[in-house]
Structures are given as C-alpha cells and as structure tokens.
Amino acid sequence: MKSVPELISEAMKQGKSRFAFEMLPPLKGDGFEKVTECVDSLIEFNPAYINITCHRESTLPVTLSDGSVQYHKVHQRPGTVGISSAIQKKYDITVVPHLICAGNSKYDIEDQLIDFSYLGLDNVLALRGDKLRTENSFVPVENGYAYAVDVVRQIANLNRGKYVDFQSDHRFNFSIGVAGYPETHLDAESAEKDIENLKAKVDAGAQYIVTQLFYENKFFFDFVRRCREAGISVPIIPGIKPLSTVNHLTVLPKFFGCHIPEELEKEVLAHKDNSQAVRQIGAEWAIAQSEELIAAGVPILHYYPMGKADNIISIAKKLF
Q1: What backbone phi and psi angles, to 5 degrees, belong to 208?
Q2: CA separation, residue 211 to residues 256, 260, 318 (Å)
Q3: Is the pLDDT of residue 145 over 70?
Q4: Using an 8 Å Cβ cutoff, are 204 and 250 in contact?
Q5: What is the 3-state secondary structure (H, E, C) of 74-87?
Q6: Is 67 helix (H, G, I), strand (E, B) or coil?
Q7: What is the pTM of this model?
Q8: Is 284 a catalytic residue?
Q9: Are 210 and 237 spatial neighbours (Cβ–Cβ below 8 Å)?
Q10: What pLDDT, in 10s, does the model give residues 214-223?
Q11: Which of 6, 10, 22, 110 is catalytic?
C-alpha cells in the first residue's frame, strides 16, 4: 500500500489535486455498515487515502437499581484499528488511523503501533487528542505524553527499531503525519509558539501536515508562508469542513478556534429555518474554497464529513 508522502509526491508530479477524507468510527451500538455506506458513496471519486479518527474515553453516569449513580470510563467510538484494517482490505486503499496521546501511555501507544504494523497499516496521523470534559487543561495519563511531538518521536524511534524499553533489529516503516493550525491551536501560547511546536514535530520525523479546518483561504496561505519562513518544508494539506448547520456558526469557532466569515454567517442566518439550504450554502462555500486551493496547486484536499457524506459528495462531484 502506498504511503501518504508517496501519494502527495505523485499528485505534485502529475500537477493534479486529489481528494481525501476523514471518517469517525461509529458509535458503540452501530454497525460497520454505516462505515461502508459512507465509503461506498465517496469511493467513486478516487480518494488518495482515508483517515480514521481515534477517540479517547468518556466519563458517563450510570444509575444503579438503588438510585445511586456511578461513573464509568467508556469508549463511545471504539474500533479505530479494526475499521482502518477492514477498509484498507475491502477497498484496497491507503488508510491512515489516528494515534493520540489522550488516554494512552507510551506502552499503549507502542502496542497500538505494533497492531497497526501487523495489519499493514503503515500510515499514522499523530495527535495529542482532547482533554476530558472534567479537565481544565489537558492532563496526560501515567507514563503518557502531553504533546503530539512525543508520539512522533516514538513512531520515529520504532522506525529505527527502538522500543520503549529496548532496541531491536526489527524496523517499522510508518509514515508520519501531524496536524497544523492555520488560525493557531487553542492551547498555544502564541501564533509564533504554535509554529515552533509544529517545527518540532517535523524535526522529530513528521513528513507532512494536515491542517485544522478554516473558512478563509487567506489563513491557510498565511500559515504556509509562516511555516516556510520557519524552515518547515514538508507538504501542507488543507483540511476543509463544509459548514452544514446553523449551530456550526458558534460550535466550530468554540471547539476549533476558526473564524466564520461575515459573508458566510449572514447567508446562513438568512436561511436559518431551512436546513437543506444551509447545507447547500456550506457546500458551495467549500467548493469555492477548494477551487482556489486547487488553482494554487495543493496536491491533496482533505475533507471532514463528520459522519455525513451528502455535502462531501456534492463537492467531490463538482471538483474531482
């Protein structure tokens, strides 16, 4: 299976932008058919790769028969490894599972990477992950990591045969992607420090960057400029999330730190009682964004369907 850096290089040589997308594992209680329905609807557009997100545990209340409440840690979206392997085998396409610090020790991470390798999943996106809702700031577990750069280092070490506790003659062959933030990570001290942190991930072994969502391309182009000025030379892939509900006007800036352009906000609010119109407005905005990015020569455009593919289908039909 081709690595993501290879796919990026091929697209750049051919001078043709390619399509990629990200999927969430289904909620516990849902079946694999929900995954295949989404992939089936998008596979005709020849995606370069498919990303599968990874989700940490949640703390949920359970009411017992005596009326008391106990709190349990559960994974509401398990299955990242299994889904990644199943999709790669079923569709013969490069799949990129996410690997997160959140909820994992360095030993957990090592074991997951070994599983990835056994299953032929040799592309990984290394992320910090989210803090728990009960936490004011991100807290790593015992023997865990506070920053994604440490996951990058661990993957790079395994590629050299260096495990957590010993050295081996066996070498892994993981490609490593990381996240970048055109409008600055919410927890970053400053935009300058955010770029420094990103360069540290690249220096540690990251081979490409996929950005957080944004709605004005000027943020992406400025981000690329700042990265290049800082000495970051790896490919930078734009991440695009079509706005699809009125709630996104407030939810997305809160959780992702992105700015919603006034023109887009006004258009959405003018049709706030028509959900289909709002989805169409979001799709058309994403198409316009994508067209400009394609014209600028980005090798791959990475889309975030967030579980619903209909608006991504309309975008892909127009562009790919």
Answers
A1: -160, 165
A2: 11, 16, 22
A3: yes
A4: no
A5: ECCCCCHHHHHHHH
A6: coil
A7: 0.94
A8: no
A9: yes
A10: 999 999 999 9
A11: 22
